[in-house]
Amino acid sequence: MLTSITDAFSLKDEVAIVTGGGTGLGFGIAQCMVDAGARVVIVGRREEPLREAVERLGPAADYRVHDITDLDSAPAFVHELEAEYERISILVNNAGIHLKKPAVETTEQEFHAMMQTHVYGAFALTRAAAPAMLDRGHGSILFIASMSSILGIPLVVAYSAAKSAYLGLVRSLSAEFSPHGVRVNGIAPGWIDTPMLRRAVDNDPARKQRILTRTPQGKFGDIRDVGWAAVYLCSPAAQFVSGAVVPVDGGASIGF
């Protein structure tokens, strides 16, 4: 039984993969996991942001250049990391792309690209990392969903479909893996202050005001708000939490 709050929220001795960890939400998650004691490997397609992120994260972090849409390479990629770090105990499926476009103008190719990155890419890594976790009887897998998994948001039909699929993955994988000591959860971030959000609202004050009005707390979140939620879900403090999707949204999903 846990008797120390420090131990309850510690990720000491854990090794985490965070996809899309070089910027934005992924960097916030990696930062908080490092602060909680984990070794963290951030993953992305572009080396320069990853290198810069690791310099900021410190010696407990490393990076690997990898394209998660290259589905066939996932087993070898995970095996290589397991051989180097002896185990992968946390997988955070965060990497993604975005598309804002009317539904009737969204092409099949664009829809497929969205699903390939978010759904197929995340599942391929999960399928590759899960066997060793299941064998050890210990592990935590996170899917970073979205408000578009919960709310009907116009002009993002492909993104919404992909992120909504995460909810099914969380529930089904949790039911399958939890009896073997591997917990599966999700986080649904609201509007978090990232470069992507700033690009979307800085030249659209009306949209910015709609978002803030829609959010009961009346502000944007910080990347570490999502990061600390990820730490909790992967820590011993959440040892009886599996199959949950936690909104980190300032109340936006329940506000009126």
Task: Give the structure's gist in a few sentences.
This protein has 256 residues and is an alpha/beta fold.
Task: Give the topology.
Elements: H1 5-8, E1 15-19, H2 24-35, E2 39-44, H3 47-57, E3 61-65, H4 74-85, E4 90-93, H5 108-136, E5 139-144, H6 157-177, E6 182-189, H7 195-201, H8 205-214, H9 223-234, E7 245-248
Helix pairs in contact: 2-9, 4-5, 5-6
How many helices? The count is 9
**What's the CATH topology name?**
Rossmann fold
The CATH superfamily bears the name: NAD(P)-binding Rossmann-like Domain
CATH architecture: 3-Layer(aba) Sandwich
Q: Report the span from N to C terminus.
A: 41 Å
Radius of gyration: 18 Å
> How would you state the average pLDDT, rounded?
95
Notes on the protein architecture:
The chain has 256 residues and is an alpha/beta fold. It contains nine helices and seven strands. It has a seven-stranded parallel β-sheet with strand order 3-2-1-4-5-6-7, sandwiched between helices. The mean pLDDT is 95.
Supply the key terms.
single chain; alpha/beta; Rossmann fold; 9 helices; 7 strands
